[in-house]
Design brief:
2 domains, seven-stranded antiparallel β-sheet, 1 helix
Amino acid sequence: METRLKKLERMNKILSTGLLLALAPWVVAAGEAVPKLIEGTGGKFQAVQSASFDLVDDAGNKAGGLVGKKDASCLTIKDSNGKVRILIGFNNGHPSLLFADKDGRTVASYREIDGSYETQE
């Protein structure tokens, strides 16, 4: 019985070593390729482009976003009920800042139009 156990152990060791040697080139090749994939061209990202980016919470719910449009780019931040509470951006090319209450109603805003500033409180 002991001899048979030793044979099985030796066979297991040989198979494990063979598997390791067979997989080693693949692991090395993947290890060399992953940093290039992660870091982008030449080791650094040249640019990341998108018309919008969604911010999501731990549960995957949309918690805000960044939208790029010709005349109305903005960053929005939502509360846990999905209401936009803060907006920072441009509206028709004019900088704007808006704060809203829990029902989504504007409670304070600030925006520049033609060199003058408007506020709402």
